[in-house]
Amino acid sequence: MKFSGAVVVAAALLQASVAQVHVLTSKNFKQQVLDSSDYWLVEFYAPWCGHCKQLEPEWKEAAKQLKTKAKLGKVDCTVHQDLGQTYGIQGYPTIKEFGKNKKKPKDFNGGRRASEIVQYVRSNPHAGLFERVDLLTYTTMQPFLESQKLPKVVVLGRNKQKKGKPRWLDDVAQQFRSKASIGFVPGSEVKVVNQFGIPESDRPIVLVARGSEYVWVKLHQVETIKDDVVAFIKQSLKGPLIEPQSLPVFPPREDASPKKKPPIGAVQQLHASTFESLCLAGGAKMCVVYLPSSMEFDLKPAAKQFRRDPLRLFYIHPEDVGFHSQLAQWLDLPKTTAANRALVFKTGTQVRMTGIVHFVISPYSFRIDLILCTLYYATVL
């Protein structure tokens, strides 16, 4: 009986779709298993082994049922002896469990029937196909940027109602696995966009961060968004970043639990998220904000000087570029970053844009200048 080419191809595709067992070799084991975030069960076998032949249909059936929960693979130890030696394989079949810590795989102690394998995996809290795309928030952005040494790719969404990541981003993450860490910021996380100093109207965007710098581009076309993101990542990973900006610092969100108010005269770091609540609407009559070009000044002497006065002292970290940019734009400050500035606000009232004065402070007379600018502004308020 003769079969047409189409029938043969269809049969091959059907077999491939049913058999979810990954064939692992010395060449692909590291990339497929060790560099993956997924949970793996790997069978080390020999073709002549009778028990291995009995396990084969059970292994395939288990792989089929677990295709959304785990990955199952097999290694022919008669061909890839180095893998057998690496993992101390002494008998066949041996099944190893590669969970979150890929460097320390565990022996699989479950049954050998498909139902038993499936039950073992589904009851294992550590099993699962781990997310290749990190869903980021204001509080998780900094740990993400500091994790690993890979370049970081972040897509900032626009839809404030959608909290999940787009499906196409998983494909992008798969394409750049081992080359970059991929993250997604939902449209509802407005504070992240503000911290980067990117206009909200420019979203959605994609940014690529390497070291302490990043570049970004606006995504104009929804129809080609995936291809545009891939092209931008490839371009940004090739050579030096073109006209990069400094990465802002993402401080942790203020604890929601009740706290004692800091004593008047204490020095606090100010963030974009706390500017209005701590400074403009604070308990003291005046709010002094210091914008240093570097952290070379000690604010404690100034705080001590004003400890009995109804004012509060704050500083903005020089690496908090996003907040510096926002404040400079809001107050129409000169664009130079070399100067050390002090701003004084009257709290509890609406800030009048025409009444704001900024003071440039000399590093040689820092304390005196800060006192003078505070006293001066106290008279006009």
Automatic annotation (TrEMBL):
InterPro entries assigned: PDI_thioredoxin-like_dom, Thioredoxin-like_sf, Thioredoxin_CS, Thioredoxin_domain
Higher taxonomy: Eukaryota, Sar, Stramenopiles, Oomycota, Saprolegniomycetes
Family assignment from sequence similarity: Belongs to the protein disulfide isomerase family.
GO CC annotation terms, alphabetical: endoplasmic reticulum lumen
Entry keywords, A to Z: Endoplasmic reticulum, Isomerase, Repeat, Signal
Any one GO molecular-function label of the UniProt entry: protein disulfide isomerase activity
Signal peptide positions (record): 1-19
Thioredoxin domain: residues covered: 2-126
Protein name, UniProt field: Protein disulfide-isomerase domain, variant
Organism name: Aphanomyces astaci (Crayfish plague agent)
PANTHER family: PROTEIN DISULFIDE-ISOMERASE A6 (PTHR45815:SF3)
Family matches, as Pfam families: Thioredoxin
SUPFAM superfamilies listed in its UniProt record: Thioredoxin-like (SSF52833)
GO aspect biological process, one term: response to endoplasmic reticulum stress
